[in-house]
Amino acid sequence: MVKIVSLGVLRQEAGTKPIILANAFDLNSFTYFKRSGVREMITFFSRTFVERTQKGQRQSIQHEEYNCHVYVRQDGLAGIVVCDQDYPPRVAFALMNKMLEEFNKETNGSWAQNPGNGSLDWAPLTKALEDYQDPTKADKISAIQKELDETTAVLSKTIDSVLERGEKLDDLVSKSADLSSQSKVFYKQAKKTNSCCVVM
């Protein structure tokens, strides 16, 4: 199942641990008793990964069945998306870029002086967490890819399913006017050669 677990906006400063400016969690997939521990682990990983990411760099770190996508801008504003491995990284980074731009714009750059530790209650982050749970709804390219995958699945019928009931491919080949006698001989020889490998 494709799922985002957490979104975070942090400030990276030289010589100190990154400061959490805002974050949002969706921990409904975890049992009630595990949620606080999971939240603490995500906070720990967020700070650690942002601290170890160079300014201007993006990276994806895999931990167990989750990916942590991190981006630190040149000005030190950083974002992190924690999601399962099925979530498309391109969509995660696009979401992160959008959130960081909006955050910077709404705070007029005051985030650089904010004491942090999640003290900013920023509603757009929570809304983005909800809106981007299904990447095909939030991202046009993912939606197109999903449609293509469905179309491919429909078109991937075997020759046998296309043939009418009771018809055999051998009969169609022998009756075909589109095939030369050489092609018909080739088909029969190929079938005979491949028949030794069929496991019944």
Automatic annotation (TrEMBL):
<dbReference type="InterPro" id="IPR010908">
    <property type="entry name" value="Longin_dom"/>
</dbReference>
<dbReference type="InterPro" id="IPR042855">
    <property type="entry name" value="V_SNARE_CC"/>
</dbReference>
<keyword id="KW-0449">Lipoprotein</keyword>
<feature type="domain" description="V-SNARE coiled-coil homology">
    <location>
        <begin position="140"/>
        <end position="200"/>
    </location>
</feature>
<comment type="similarity">
    <text>Belongs to the synaptobrevin family.</text>
</comment>
<keyword id="KW-0175">Coiled coil</keyword>
<dbReference type="GO" id="GO:0005484">
    <property type="term" value="F:SNAP receptor activity"/>
</dbReference>
<dbReference type="InterPro" id="IPR011012">
    <property type="entry name" value="Longin-like_dom_sf"/>
</dbReference>
<protein>
    <recommendedName>
        <fullName>Synaptobrevin like YKT6</fullName>
    </recommendedName>
</protein>
<dbReference type="Pfam" id="PF13774">
    <property type="entry name" value="Longin"/>
</dbReference>
<keyword id="KW-0472">Membrane</keyword>
<keyword id="KW-0636">Prenylation</keyword>
<dbReference type="InterPro" id="IPR001388">
    <property type="entry name" value="Synaptobrevin-like"/>
</dbReference>
<dbReference type="GO" id="GO:0016020">
    <property type="term" value="C:membrane"/>
</dbReference>
<dbReference type="GO" id="GO:0006888">
    <property type="term" value="P:endoplasmic reticulum to Golgi vesicle-mediated transport"/>
</dbReference>
<dbReference type="GO" id="GO:0005794">
    <property type="term" value="C:Golgi apparatus"/>
</dbReference>
<keyword id="KW-0488">Methylation</keyword>
<keyword id="KW-0564">Palmitate</keyword>
<dbReference type="Pfam" id="PF00957">
    <property type="entry name" value="Synaptobrevin"/>
</dbReference>
<feature type="domain" description="Longin">
    <location>
        <begin position="8"/>
        <end position="106"/>
    </location>
</feature>
